[in-house]
Automatic annotation (TrEMBL):
EC number: 3.4.24.77
Compartments it resides in: Secreted
Signal sequence annotation: 1-25
A GO CC annotation given for this chain: extracellular region
Main location: secreted
Biological processes per GO annotation: proteolysis
InterPro entries: MetalloPept_cat_dom_sf, Peptidase_M7
Source organism of the structure: Streptomyces yokosukanensis
Protein's recorded name: Extracellular small neutral protease
Pfam family, one: Peptidase_M7
Length: 196
């Protein structure tokens, strides 16, 4: 009987520490980043409404730290889409809540034969802080016009999505960047040459 009591005395603390360890492992909070929500206004986008909706959906499916949603109050969006007659151009982000980004979706790129959804998704990539990489393959959204008019891929690749997640990993910064650099994308197969 004394041996059984000694064994139980040794097992009970061991069982309790295991149970406590398991309970604390399950109740430990997961380290998560707050998702940054950016609002956009596509009220002046005209024929681009469908391509914008698809482009936004592609980005929302690919990234985790930022969410793009249409504004419920016109004039209060973090960035706006608008249809223009020129070349696409965009404020280079990353844009954060309270920002004022601009995406001009230019008809000239469409006239050259480029896919509207790819253009909208590419320009949204600039809002999210991505730079152009024209020499990249069609699978890279930020290769833009580089692969030519036959490229219709409108989804970011894994590396592009990872960079956007990194851009928004710390949530909304206390100090927002005040730069207003604009990226002008000339979606053209024409090669510019320097005068001699």
């Amino acid at each position: 009987m004394i041996k059984r009591i000694a064994v139980l005395t040794a097992l009970i603390p061991a069982m309790l520490s295991t149970t406590v360890g398991v309970a604390s492992a399950h109740s430990a909070p997961h380290a998560t980043t707050a998702v940054v929500t950016l609002t956009y206004d596509a009220g002046d986008a005209g024929q681009w409404a469908g391509p914008i909706e698809q482009a936004v959906s592609n980005w929302n499916d690919a990234v985790h730290n930022v969410r793009l949603v249409p504004t419920s109050t016109p004039g209060s969006a973090d960035y706006v889409y608008e249809a223009t007659s020129g070349w696409p151009q965009t404020t280079l982000g990353p844009i954060f809540p309270g920002g004022n980004g601009d995406v001009e979706l230019g008809q000239q790129a469409v006239d050259e034969g480029y896919d509207m959804t790819r253009i909208a998704a590419h320009e949204t990539g600039h809002i999210l802080g991505l730079l152009d990489h024209y020499s990249g393959p069609c699978s890279e959204l930020m290769s833009g016009h580089g692969p030519g008019t036959s490229c219709t891929n409108a989804k970011p690749d894994a590396a592009e999505a990872a960079q956007v997640d990194k851009n928004y990993a710390s949530g909304t910064p206390a100090l927002r960047p005040h730069r207003h650099q604009v990226v002008i994308d000339v979606w053209s197969d024409r090669r510019l040459t320097e005068p001699r």
